[in-house]
């Protein structure tokens, strides 16, 4: 029988909740404040904690923080006064599973408790099986190419995310690999029959969202039903119409634990919340596990390896693309370029060169002129100190010896160029 620790400083609330919860198959234990509840939880452990937000000496938010610190897998539902939505959203920020606004309906209470138990069971199941499907090295390393510290750290983060079902927010510029990570997480989360439902929020209208995403009565539309057991992938979440954002919160409260929710954004959603352009509750529901993806210009050392991979994936009827090489001069230009389109831009360029070249060795003359223009080169500050002299020499060469032009692009004194 699932156990619920109920925390409220009013005995009358204990009696009322006991009367409505016990007949539905839950066992109940009570505490009158946060300190007593924390001690009780440490002594016995409970499947769920149902805590009022307004208590003394330890309030519900403080209790929530202590519970998460003691047991990261604890599942806490916060009860709050009807007018205290802001406090409820804060609870989501600190890891609450959900919240209930007083006065709440009995069916709403029981449904929330059952969703909490379902989530708890999913956590336990994934822990017992080592985090879902076996995560093979090639599932990640084969798609997140590189040996830079940024990529190594990203790979470790993705491995950790694969072991939980919590919503994930992927943050990064266009072309940095957010879709690849979403597909990796889907592979290790769902069964072979599970669907990967991909929705681009920048391309759909409000009417389209209401039909496909929201549905009727907050139960979700056909996109949500199709994602059950799999992954709902919302790209460019910052483009979701404001009128839809609040309604999506209700859908997620009712359905989010039936699928893996992965969202992406190219903008700072927290800043959008502060500016009133994005729903704060939706943000905290989707951003509990944010993952920042580095742009390609911040991991230059990975570019040769990525180019080699993209080249061998291309097809050329005249040349075996596995044997294609780039001269040092060509690779220097490719490594120095700013890559505003990141991996997508690099893939398109490399694939075109590899599939159309008539020579096995690619020289700098075969590269597009735009890669060699100074306006596309990054500033000196974006290069590590060990590459400084080599980089200065290349920029000066590209500027045909015009020190003033090179210094202007670099943002340095012309005297630095010798």
Question: What's a concise summary of this model?
Answer:
The chain is α/β, with parallel strands linked by helices and 418 residues long.
CATH topology of the largest domain: Rossmann fold
CATH superfamily of the largest domain: P-loop containing nucleotide triphosphate hydrolases
**Could you say how many structural domains there are in total?**
3
Shape: elongated
Secondary-structure map with pairings?
Elements: E1 3-7, H1 11-21, E2 27-31, H2 34-44, E3 48-52, H3 60-70, E4 76-81, H4 85-93, E5 98-102, H5 106-128, H6 137-141, H7 149-161, E6 168-171, H8 178-189, E7 196-200, H9 206-214, H10 222-227, E8 231-235, H11 242-255, E9 260-265, H12 269-274, H13 280-286, E10 289-292, H14 303-312, E11 325-326, H15 328-336, H16 342-356, E12 361-362, H17 388-398, H18 403-410
Parallel strand pairs: 1-2, 1-3, 3-4, 4-5, 6-9, 6-10, 7-8, 8-9, 11-12
Describe the protein.
By secondary structure, the protein is of the alpha/beta class. The chain has three domains: 3-128, Response regulator (Rossmann fold), CATH 3.40.50.2300; 137-294, Rossmann fold (3-Layer(aba) Sandwich); 297-417, Helicase, Ruva Protein, domain 3, CATH 1.10.8.60. 45% of the residues lie in helices and 13% in strands. The chain has helices at 11-21, 34-44, 60-70, 85-93, 106-128, 137-141, 149-161, 178-189, 206-214, 222-227, 242-255, 269-274, 280-286, 303-312, 328-336, 342-356, 388-398, 403-410, and strands at residues 3-7, 27-31, 48-52, 76-81, 98-102, 168-171, 196-200, 231-235, 260-265, 289-292, 325-326, 361-362. It has a five-stranded parallel β-sheet with strand order 2-1-3-4-5, sandwiched between helices. Helix 1 (11-21) links the parallel strand 1 (3-7) and strand 2 (27-31). The chain is elongated and about 85 Å long. Residues 129-134 have low confidence and may be disordered.
């Amino acid at each position: 029988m699932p156990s619920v620790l109920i925390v409220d400083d009013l005995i009358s609330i204990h009696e009322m909740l006991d009367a409505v919860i016990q007949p539905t198959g839950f066992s109940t234990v009570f505490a009158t404040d946060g300190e007593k509840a924390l001690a009780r939880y440490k002594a016995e452990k409970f499947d769920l904690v149902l805590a009022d937000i307004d208590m003394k000496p330890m309030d519900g938010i403080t209790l929530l923080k202590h519970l998460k610190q003691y047991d990261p897998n604890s599942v806490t539902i916060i009860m709050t006064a009807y007018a205290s939505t802001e406090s409820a959203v804060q609870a989501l920020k600190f890891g609450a599973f959900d919240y209930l606004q007083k006065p709440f309906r009995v069916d709403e209470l029981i449904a929330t408790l059952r969703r909490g138990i379902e989530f708890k069971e999913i956590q336990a199941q994934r822990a017992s099986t080592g985090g879902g499907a076996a995560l093979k090295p090639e599932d990640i390393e084969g798609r997140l190419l590189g040996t830079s510290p940024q990529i190594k750290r990203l790979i470790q983060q993705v491995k950790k995310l694969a072991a939980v079902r919590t919503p994930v927010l992927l943050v990064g510029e266009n072309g940095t690999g957010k879709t690849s990570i979403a597909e990796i997480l889907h592979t290790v989360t769902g069964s072979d029959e599970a669907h990967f439902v991909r929705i681009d929020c920048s391309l759909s209208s409000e009417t389209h969202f209401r039909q496909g995403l929201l549905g009727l009565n907050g139960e979700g539309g056909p996109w949500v039903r199709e994602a059950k057991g799999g992954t709902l992938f919302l790209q460019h979440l910052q483009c979701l119409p404001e009128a839809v954002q609040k309604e999506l919160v209700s859908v997620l409260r009712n359905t989010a634990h039936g699928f893996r929710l992965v969202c992406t954004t190219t903008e700072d959603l927290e800043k959008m919340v502060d500016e009133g352009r994005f729903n704060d509750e939706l943000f905290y529901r989707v951003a509990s596990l944010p993952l920042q993806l580095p742009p390609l210009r911040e991991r230059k050392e990975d570019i040769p390896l990525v180019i080699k991979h993209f080249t061998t994936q291309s097809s050329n009827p005249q040349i075996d693309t596995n044997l294609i090489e780039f001269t040092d001069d060509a690779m220097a230009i490719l490594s120095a370029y700013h890559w505003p389109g990141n991996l997508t831009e690099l893939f398109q360029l490399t694939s075109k060169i590899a599939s159309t070249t008539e020579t096995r060795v690619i020289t700098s003359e075969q590269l597009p002129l735009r890669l060699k223009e100074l306006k596309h080169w990054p500033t000196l500050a974006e290069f590590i100190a060990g590459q400084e002299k080599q980089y200065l020499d290349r920029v000066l060469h590209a500027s045909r010896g015009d020190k003033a032009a090179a210094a202007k692009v670099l943002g340095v004194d012309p005297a630095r160029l010798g």
